[in-house]
Design a protein that fits this description.
Blueprint: E1 4-8, E2 12-17, H1 20-29, E3 31-36, E4 39-46, E5 49-70, H2 79-91, E6 101-107, E7 112-117, E8 131-136, E9 139-162, E10 166-170, H3 179-191, E11 200-206, E12 211-215
Antiparallel strand pairs: 1-12, 2-10, 2-11, 3-4, 4-10, 5-7, 5-9, 6-7, 8-9
């Protein structure tokens, strides 16, 4: 689930309570009188709907027959020779898995290749081998080896998020106190059961400008 942004405007505050019932009770009351440093402020409590959110699942399948190979050395040999040498190198690598190679898809420009083995599971032992020796023309190079994966996007959904535990306060009057002090006074007021409040998980108050607050499911 992606994070859902909410625009918090000047002199507004967001309060998230531990108990959903507290938030819903305060919303039904509508207005609250809050003491802000001996100044009485009549604030309005509003429910709010978040912007559009996205839900999806990513299903990643690791191939047991294919591996990705990169950092293939640039050599002055034809491409089909390089494919043959890659096939021979991984065919001989029984100590690290490998075995008979079904195909080699090699791209000279990107210096990458996809090795497909004939036997299922032959690629499994290469998962933890990030660098692999490649012997050609009497020299040993190090190839970068990684698993070959298929990524599928599933259950893609758009939805409108509504936070049942969070309330929006409007009409907070400006004071000479700093933003943090005003936020503390608001928190103290709405934590008291005598004010129909309860335990607060998070609070954010903005005295000037705007800010973006992100919600997670």
């Amino acid at each position: 689930t992606t994070k859902i942004p909410f625009r918090l405007n000047q002199n507004h505050a967001l309060l998230t309570f531990e108990d959903e019932e507290v938030a819903q009770r305060l919303i039904k009351m509508g207005k609250h009188t809050v003491n802000l440093d001996n100044k009485i402020a009549d604030v309005r409590v509003k429910p709010f709907t978040l912007e559009m959110g996205i839900k999806f699942e990513l299903r990643v399948t690791i191939s047991g027959k294919k591996i990705n190979v990169s950092e293939v050395p640039e050599l002055c040999i034809p491409e089909d020779w390089m494919r043959d040498k890659l096939e021979l190198n991984f065919y001989k690598s029984e100590q690290g898995g490998g075995g008979e190679v079904e195909s080699v898809n090699y791209d000279k420009q990107s210096r990458k290749a996809v090795i497909t083995f004939l036997r299922p599971g032959a690629a499994d032992s290469f998962v933890r081998c990030t660098k692999y020796p490649f012997f050609v023309n009497g020299r040993c190079y190090r190839l970068s080896v990684s698993p070959h994966t298929n990524v599928h996007l599933e259950k893609f959904q758009l939805y409108c998020g509504i936070s049942k535990k969070t309330i929006l306060l409007k009409g907070i009057q400006e004071t000479e106190d700093d933003e943090e002090s005003v936020q503390d006074m608001i928190e103290i007021h709405f934590q008291k059961p005598s004010n129909s409040g309860g335990e607060i998980e998070k609070i954010k108050y903005v005295s000037k400008g705007i800010t973006w607050v992100c919600f997670e499911e």
